[in-house]
Write a structure and sequence with these properties.
- The protein is an alpha+beta fold.
- It has a single domain, classed as 3-Layer(aba) Sandwich (NMB0488-like fold).
- About 30% of the residues lie in helices and about 35% in strands.
- The protein is built from four helices and nine strands, in the order βββββαβααβββα.
- The strands form two sheets. It has a six-stranded antiparallel β-sheet with strand order 5-2-1-7-8-9.
- A hairpin with a 4-residue loop joins β3 and β4.
- α1 packs across α4.
- The termini are far apart.
């Protein structure tokens, strides 16, 4: 696998708001959301598309790997004003966009059956092939996010 070719962007939807930031790759190879964090209303189609386009164009900058002893909380908690990751997860949707070898993969995650974290929802995976334009990917993601939060 050519890991350099893999691009990943992850974000959360919580109580009508999209928590969106650049997803960086650590020197060790895992991904982490970094500042600045944007809070975008799910209902604002143009702002959401523009935010997605912006973070995708920034790619995955490389950052140092956090220390094992670094028990800092996920970045979204700072902006949600919640003190517990567990509380945030109860009402949040986790999303992931990846790009590799000409294919974009959009995935909405579901809560694990034990309530601890997320796992991919195979029924909620959308694949776009032949290297579509970033604008096309952002439009599709926006449509999916808005449809998933519609009452």
């Amino acid at each position: 696998m050519n890991e350099i070719a893999l691009k990943v962007w992850s974000f959360y939807v919580h109580r009508g708001c999209v928590y969106l930031s650049v997803t960086a790759r650590t020197v060790a190879g895992f991904f982490n959301n970094i500042e600045p964090m944007r809070l975008l209303p799910v209902s604002d189609t143009e702002a959401l598309k523009a935010g997605l386009i912006d973070v995708m164009r920034q790619g995955n900058p490389t950052i140092s790997t956090p220390d094992r002893d670094d028990d800092s909380l996920p970045l979204v908690l700072k902006y949600s004003k919640l003190k517990s990751w567990t509380i945030f997860q109860k009402d949040a949707q986790a999303w992931n966009i990846s790009a590799k070898d000409g294919v974009y993969r959009i995935c909405k995650y579901r809560r694990r059956s034990n309530g601890q974290g997320y796992e991919e929802d195979p029924a909620a995976v959308v694949t776009l092939s032949s290297w579509p334009a970033i604008e096309e990917v952002a439009t599709r993601v926006t449509d999916l996010v808005q449809a998933s939060t519609a009452v």
